[in-house]
Amino acid sequence: MASRVVITGLGVVSPIGIGVSTFWKSAMAGQSGISAITSFDPFPMDGYRSKVAGQIRNFSAEQHIGSSHGDRVDRYAQFALAASREALADSGMDMEKESPHRVGVIVGAGMGGMVMGEREITQLYLHQKPHRVHPNFIPVITLNSASGIVAMATGAKGPNFTISTACSSSAHALGQAWHTIRTGQADAVIVVGADASITPLVFAGFCSLRALSSKFNEQPERASRPFDRDRDGFVMGEGAGSLIVESLAHAKKRKARIYAELAGYAATSEAYHMVIPREDGEEVATTMKLALNAADISPSEVDYINAHATSTNIGDAVESKAIRALFKNRADKIAISATKSLVGHTLGAAGAIGAIATTLAIHTGHIHPTANYDNPDPDCRLGGLSRDPQEKKIRAALLNAFGFGSNNAAVVLKRFRA
Fold first, then answer.
1. Engineering a disulfide at 409: which of 168, 356, 374, 396 sits with its beta carbon 3.0 to 4.6 angstroms away?
2. What three-state secondary structure class fits 340?
């Protein structure tokens, strides 16, 4: 019989707070972490259509992870390590008492070490001195650098890999951790989602794609507005989220506090378009349904959805259609919130940060508001969306995450019952 899987630890680095306590307090207050980008040193923002992002301005690598790690990893991996250390401490799991080959690390990352990558390629082309490229360039920019550094810092010697599926990366990481534990390959997995790609080239690329909001450059905190009639694109963010997941037997053995149960997961491909989802929402609805089937939960038991909700015109409308298609008459009775309205779209970290918000909603019975939901769009109006915090006892919840490359992920979490 497959093992039940539970969540026992949380850690986060986000534009609205470093640390779960600060993050959750800010989220419940509906605080926006979106601010103006003043420049990409050494050149100004004049040439960029969008000039706002969910930036983390007060992160000190030396303070949060120590100078030895900070000096040899990219910003996204620094975030990953800080979040995973908090999650591990929160879980109460003592790695010195664990069998190291029974603890894995699975990371979701969309872009990898872009801070060093852009810096070094710029220096190479400007000065044409190949011998001056940073000696750690390759191990730092690889997508699995975060999973490697987390394993080395914690001593976890179990399954270790990185999933990169753009915006759904860490939702898939969470799902793969569920599989890994259920199939007996590990007792516990440190799951992390991380990205730090507010860099000159990546930001320019998203601007050229016409994917980013540009109407609210003078009012940054209003720019990320999922499901709102005035939305005009997503707002880039950066950060990391980490969750400690383990088998129920393992958690019980060490008398761990359990936040919620990780109950199901589904991954699909729309096989449709690299950037645009199918407009009828059919594939998104199918993904949610498959995740509920995996959890042996009916749509009638779902009380909350943490929506993917990027604040793009087509994306929000498609997700709304999918929710209505699956839940039918119950669609307006399900509480829904969009974490990206507060922190922006953190790319590979989005699924993990959304999962933390979902876990805390289940654990506390409180759901954070959706910021800037001022003028509900008739094309994606849902009764459970609110600009105010909601209080609700949640039996089961869905976390949605959809990524470039035509891929979808849905994760089911539920209130833990012994």
1. 168
2. helix
Which residue is listed with tokens 């029974």? Answer: 102
Q: Among 72, 75, 30, 80, which residue's Cα sits nearest to residue 57?
A: 75
Among 400, 415, 393, 407, which residue's Cα sits nearest to residue 174? 400
> How crowded is residue 49: how many other Cβ atoms within 10 Å of its Cβ?
16
User: Are 194 and 100 contained in the same domain?
Assistant: yes
Decide if 207 is catalytic: no
Strand-strand pairing, 335-337 and 302-306:
parallel
CATH at residue 84? 3.40.47.10
Distance separating alpha carbons of residues 271 and 309, to the nearest angstrom: 21
- Encode the chain (418 residues) as per-residue pLDDT tens digits: 689 999 999 999 999 999 999 999 999 999 999 999 998 888 889 999 999 999 999 898 888 777 666 667 999 999 999 999 999 999 999 999 999 999 999 999 999 999 999 999 999 999 999 999 998 989 999 999 999 999 999 999 999 999 999 999 999 999 999 999 999 999 999 999 999 999 999 999 999 999 999 999 999 999 999 999 999 999 999 999 999 999 999 999 999 999 999 999 999 999 999 999 999 999 999 999 999 999 999 999 999 999 999 999 999 999 999 999 999 999 999 999 999 999 999 999 999 999 999 999 999 999 999 999 999 999 998 999 999 999 999 999 999 999 999 999 999 999 999 8
Q: Assign residue 292 a region: left if phi > 0, alpha if psi is -120 to 50, beta otherwise?
A: alpha
300 token code pair: 């009638």
- What is the domain range of residue 385? 264-414
**Domain co-membership, 117 together with 221:** yes
Contact indicator for 319, 30 with CB cutoff of 8 Å = no
Catalytic residue, chosen from 20, 167, 190, 336, is 167
Q: pTM score > 0.90 for this model?
A: yes
Give dist(CA 20, CA 357) in Å, integer. 10
Residue 173: partners with Cβ closer than 8 Å, 6 or more residues away:
106, 107, 108, 162, 163, 191, 192, 193, 351, 352
Of 241, 200, 245, 196, which is closest to residue 70 (Cα–Cα)? 196
Same structural domain for residues 218 and 278?
no
In-domain check, residue 259: no
